[in-house]
Amino acid sequence: MFDRIAGVYDVMNTVMTAGLHHRWRERAVDLARVGPGSRALDVATGTGDLALALARRGADVTGSDFSEGMLDRARAKATALRWEQADALALPYADDSFDAATVGFGARNFSDLAQGLREMARVVRPGGRVVVLEITTPQKPPLSTFFKLWFDRVVPLAGRLDEAYVYLPSSVKRFPGPERLAGVLAEAGCTDVRWILTAGGIIALHSGTVA
């Protein structure tokens, strides 16, 4: 499915978020606390926008994804970065290999969320950072009303282009809320787990420090 939509992925992201997804990725990079000399892994990197944001801070970045179609798009954006095919549930990297691991709009696609977050924590050194940027379901109107209309009525219309955009709303609905996701991060080996809600509660940024 992700190979199939790779060609329209960036355009659809921009349309569905009014271009704000770049700003949210920059905030995720702030939470990752990387800079020159840091090593960062972006898991489920897709077409590479979050990995590129990490690289702009001076970090040595690896972007991994299971979709070669997505990785081809990422490679076209930046040939100098490392783009590697990998399973988020069994990352092919040694323990303590990175200073930070991030995932942007990809954690809800993990078939086993707890295992994916454990793997991210495993490959980050003690004191390093794990950051999760994801869509969440707002609980209070008017945003909750708008969100329901947008995801139940408008986004599925894109399903006429590809069934992936029927999958999107269902993947968001079944994803844990902010408090529950914070608990999963803590169980994965992170301390000082915090989250920020932005865009009226539609976007959650979680971060934690590896113990």
* Beta strand count: 7
Q: Provide the spatial order of strands within the biggest beta sheet.
A: 3-2-1-4-5-7-6
Instruction: Count the domains.
Output: 1
Shape: globular
The number of helical segments is: 8
CATH class: Alpha Beta
> Would you identify the regions where 5 or more consecutive residues have pLDDT less than 50?
none
Give an account of the 3D structure.
With 211 residues, this protein is of the alpha/beta class. The chain has one domain (2-133, 176-210): Vaccinia Virus protein VP39 (Rossmann fold), CATH 3.40.50. Helices cover 42% and strands 24% of the residues. The protein has a 7-stranded mixed β-sheet, with helices on both faces.
What are the SSEs and their pairings?
Elements: H1 2-17, H2 21-32, E1 39-43, H3 49-56, E2 60-65, H4 68-77, E3 82-85, E4 98-104, H5 113-122, E5 124-135, H6 143-154, H7 164-174, H8 178-187, E6 190-198, E7 203-210
Parallel strand pairs: 1-2, 1-4, 2-3, 4-5
Antiparallel strand pairs: 5-7, 6-7
Helix pairs in contact: 1-4, 2-3
Descriptive keywords:
211 residues, alpha/beta, Rossmann fold, seven-stranded mixed sheet, globular
Offer a quick outline of the entry:
The N and C termini lie far apart (36 Å). The chain has 8 helices and 7 strands. The chain has 211 residues and is α/β, with parallel strands linked by helices.
